[in-house]
Each structure stands twice: as structure tokens, then as C-alpha cells.
Amino acid sequence: MDKLRMRFSKTGRAVYISHLDLMHTIQRAFSRAGYKVKYSEGFNPHPVISIALPLSVGMSSICEIMDFRLEGECDFSETPAKLNAALPEGIEVFEIYEAEEKPAALKWLKVEGVFRYNDAPELDRIRNFFSQDQIVISKKTKRGVSDTDIVPGIREISFDSSGNDITVHAVVSAQEPTLNPELLAEALRQLAPELAPVFSSFRRTEVYNDSMKVFR
């Protein structure tokens, strides 16, 4: 079967599995569940399987997207359970369906995060920082270090406080440009160290196309 898409989660201890190991883990799960993944043609054949937006090690997600092709047929209603029986704790398949959009159409990520402090600053100071017209930080790229304005990559952002935790709710750019939500905390470290958390973590919760419709 061609152009199949899987939605799955990566949580708990599984967040420390690297992207490459995750790919191998899912390939083995297909085999153990009785499915044969298609291979590409040519001198160096490889499994036709890809994850739309590889997840950083340590970050969790309940909305991961993987495209794949199988030899033969699969029952969309039965396959998730068969795969889950072969997958380790923390990786769970929710749904398999025929892909409707190309991966290039994936534009926005909805994320939830936490900034943890020993003594949390006033919430308005965090809100004011992220309401600036420009937030230019130094960012490492393949070509070296460059200055990057992260504001164009933030569609929505809001904050709540609970004790010494500040909860972050945001919609950030997934592609062109890509904004890793960890850069939200990094911006504080670089530009307002007095507001920087001692710890931060984020979770992906949904993926959208450019029209803010759930990516399918």
C-alpha cells in the first residue's frame, strides 16, 4: 500500500530514544506485527519510511507524523493495536490512514511547555519580553553562528503561573522557518538572564497546515 500515514506519541522514557533508533524501533515493530515495509529501488535500497518533523531528544510529543509504504494490505482499524503490542513503552500508535497532504504543507506546531524557577518572576515580565517586535538571538546553524529573530516563528504565545512554574502555550513555525520551542527559553537566557528558568521542557500537542487546520 502506498502513501500511508501514522500518528503516534513519544513520551515517558521514550523521549530519550534518538531519531535513528526510533526509526529502527518502528521498523522492527512492523516486522514483529507481520507487516513488510517497502524498500526503495536502486543500488542502495532503504525502507520507505520517514518522519515529517524529527523530534529533538528529550522532547515529548502526542502528535508525531510518519509516512510509510507497505507490501500488501493493512487494516487501518487493526494495525495500530498490532504495532503497539510490538513497540516499547512510551511509543504509541493512535491512527493509520491514507495521507491527504504532502509533508511540505505542515506549517505550525502547537506546543505546551514549562519554565521552572527557584523563585519565579512576575508573569507580566515574561509576557512583556515575548511581546517585543523583535527578539534576536544567536543561533547555531550548519554554517556556524548567526543572529536570528524568533518573532516571525511565533504565531501565538501565552503564559500561566503556578507556584514557581510558568506554563507556556504556543503555536510556532514548524517549517520555513523552523522554530524549536526550546529557543523560547534560550531567548531568555541570552537576552534577559534575570528571567531565565533553571529548567524548561516542551511537548508537541498538534500539527497544522498553513490554514491552521489539523495536518492530515
Describe the structure.
This protein is of the alpha+beta class and 216 residues long. Helices cover 19% and strands 38% of the residues. It contains 4 helices and 12 strands; from the N terminus they run E-H-E-E-E-E-H-E-E-H-E-E-E-E-H-E. The chain has helices at residues 19-32, 79-86, 123-130, 182-191; strands at 4-10, 36-37, 49-51, 60-68, 70-71, 91-98, 106-116, 136-141, 144-149, 154-162, 165-173, 199-209. Strands 1, 3, 4, 6, 7, 10, 11 and 12 form an 8-stranded mixed sheet that branches. The chain has a two-stranded antiparallel sheet with strand order 2-5. Helix 1 crosses helix 2 (79-86). The longest helix has 14 residues, at 19-32. It is elongated. The mean pLDDT is 95.
Taking all Cα atoms into account, the compactness measure Rg is 19 Å
Count of individual helical segments? 4
Q: Assess the beta-strand content as a share of residues.
A: 35-45%
Structural class: alpha+beta
Instruction: Kindly report the average pLDDT value.
Output: 95
What separation lies between the terminal Cα atoms? 17 Å
Binned, the helix content reads 10-25%
User: Unreliable runs, pLDDT <50, ≥5 residues?
Assistant: none
For the largest beta-sheet, the strand count, sense and barrel status come to:
8 strands, mixed
Please state the overall shape, judged from the principal axes of the Cα atoms.
Answer: elongated
Number of separate strands: 12
Order of helices and strands: EHEEEEHEEHEEEEHE
